[in-house]
Amino acid sequence: MPSPLVKPLVRSIYEVAGQRILMPERMAKVTPDLKRALYGIRDELKQHDGKLELSDLFRSYDMQLQAHLDYTSGKKKAFSPPPGGSMHESGRAFDVDLSRLKVPLAEFWQIAARWGVVPIIAEPKASISESWHFECRGSHQKVYEHYRAERGTNFKPATAMAISAIIGSGVPHDRFKGKQDAAYVQSALIRLGHDLGNIDGDVGPKTLKVLESLQVDPAAPAAWVDKVDALLQQKYPEEFFDKAEDDLSAFV
């Protein structure tokens, strides 16, 4: 199975009757490892009288398209790629209200890092665009590194990572219509440490050779997904199983 998208209890910047509310249902979807990270970061910030309050979390295809159109029209200044290229679409990214943290941004980076969450800018300056954007990349960081080392060449590293994360969460991707399972297998094999070139949904000799080395019948495509799923769950259980405890009292 792909990484499930689960519901976190996390406060948003949106208000009802003057009070900030939990993240709306349409955006309250994350992978299990990000849910755990959000709770851990929230609890650490509470020690500094700070709050973790988000403006953005999961985006559907339509939400990502609108964000992209807002960017291209000039309505939105921060870059938003077209659908299929954002970590928000995989439930692995969030945008935070920096004014509520009560700690310097550099210190927040350290807190986030302890929970496997990273920024996308080079230095902790709140004046820089996207200083509010953070990602829980998990094993998809390996896809980024695979492409950065030019072992994959059909996408830029950040785009390849986002694509891997999106299909890894079971979200349909336009680029792989009719062959998303094959692309998922390729992504999974890279996350497991294998070098097989591009994620393109076209299973070639490299992919078949790796599958054979894993004792999967290359002639039985139906078994490929089951095999890589079992290996991924064994290596990265935090990405597949939700063990974070919800606590509504944390928002009182």
Automatic annotation (TrEMBL):
<protein>
    <submittedName>
        <fullName>M15 family metallopeptidase</fullName>
    </submittedName>
</protein>
<dbReference type="InterPro" id="IPR009045">
    <property type="entry name" value="Zn_M74/Hedgehog-like"/>
</dbReference>
